[in-house]
Fold this sequence. Notes:
Blueprint: H1 10-21, H2 27-38, H3 41-85, H4 91-114, E1 119-124, E2 127-129, E3 132-133, H5 134-139, E4 153-156, E5 161-166, E6 169-184, E7 187-200, E8 204-207, E9 212-225, E10 228-242, E11 245-249, E12 254-256
Parallel strand pairs: 7-8
Antiparallel strand pairs: 1-5, 2-3, 2-4, 4-6, 5-6, 6-7, 7-9, 8-9, 9-10, 10-11, 10-12
Helix pairs in contact: 1-3
Amino acid sequence: MEEKKEILTCEQARARIPQHARGTLQSAEVAVLRGHFEGCEPCEAVYRDAIETEVYLGKTAIEESEGSEMRRRATRARTLEGMKGGASGFRWRTILIPLFFAWLIIEVSGVFALTPRIVLVEAEGAVSVAGRPVEAYEELGEDDSLLLVRGSWCEVAVGGYASFELPGGSFTLTGPAGLLAEGVDPPRLRLQSGSLALKLDGPLTLVTQRGVLELESGEGLVVSDLGGLEIFWERGEGVLVDAKGETQLAPGIELQR
């Protein structure tokens, strides 16, 4: 007996949109919701608005985090300066305290280096990360720690590209493109538009306008925009979940949705 396919009303679809925008729906639920979008432009527009809201909230959280970090650094600098000024009778403090902070920084840096990260390794053209151009990070001397953290957005203009390393692989985003990091460990990306070349030795979830790619490992190219989805898969394992169900990826396969 053929399994009856679930059909959503607009009210049911819109109730699931916030969960889908946050990436908390199961693959089967995503496929049903995507099927509804294909025949309902108003609901698809509501979904796009929800994504833009999630991106804005992610950017705001990052800006608040950066502001807190700057305030923390300023407070620590003032504290150290005060210690330095009153250290004439306690010269041992001027030696031990900086050594302690140096040790602490080394320890924290070591832990941070082991934490799974999505790191920008190369960029060309107009590229922004978390709402700031790459050039701005370089001017501040922060170009060695350009990270795509959870909730942050990478945008690439026409003619540009950005290459990242992530846990278990790497990817290159070619413009015009927009990519949202929904998670880092395990990695989960949302390709709003653009061309994404992947080289993976570990799992990755890639959300597109037309479906969700659950990738175990491999190499391939994904091109996505509002008009459709194209997948050129060269090697490895994976599956595309969309309104048509599940489609296994195989070496040499080309898919269009």
